[in-house]
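User:
Note these tokens:
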Amino acid sequence: MLDIFKAIFLGIIEGITEWLPISSTGHLILANELIKLNVSEAFMEMFEVVIQLGAIMAVVVLFWNKLWPFTTRQSSGVTPIVKNIGIKKSSFSLWVKVIIASLPAAIIGLPLDDKINELFFNPTTVAVALIVYGVAFILIEHFKKNTEPKVATLKQFTYKTALFVGLFQALSMIPGTSRSGSTILGAMLLGCSRTVAAEFSFYLAVPVMFGASALKLVKFGLNFTGTEFMILAAGMIISFAVSIIVIKFLLGFIRKNSFKAFGYYRIALGIIVLLYFYVLAK
């Protein structure tokens, strides 16, 4: 039962940090030091990725009307009512952009997933990535403070922009970078408004996180014990509920505020990670 409560706590962390540009990996590394689940190392590695499925469902629920590409029209007359299925151009175009932006991470990440984890999944890399991207957020907000964004709506978001944002997302394979952080930062550098950058990062998460979760599940297999299944389910459900709240909060926050606060937070967290693992933990 204690492990269920720990999974709930980790689900809360995932739901908050997956959407805010502050690195879920950095937080989970610290959390794992403080609250260790009584599970195998292989299950824990899978758990940290697969609870993202709950976060994905939050995006699907909140943005269903924009993401669902099909529409139905009812026609009536002499014949009984007939439903005609059509395709929404805006949703179809959005999905094409999402697929284009997903390609770089898929091409690079699939063959190198294990090697990247082996080389870079350590406190030093995470801390440095947290600090570097924190500084980057502060600088971009400073220099773009009085600049009108070139891309103020998703309709202005081109396929070319989607590809370049996808290249920035590929950088998030380095632990501590943050998937949302790299995509938002990249989109803003390409001239997108904060709202467009954040919203596209939500959509882009759906295939990327689903693919990563599916890959981990395939590697681990489906032979869960009853306890392991309950732990995973608890983490996913809580991650979903918290993600709903956090996504709404972020969209409201950035309409009136910049990302500087997240930049300062990243720097502080990076310093905490370094202090904990190289000073306090010794």
Residues 2-280 form one domain. The chain has twelve helices and two strands. The radius of gyration is 20 Å.
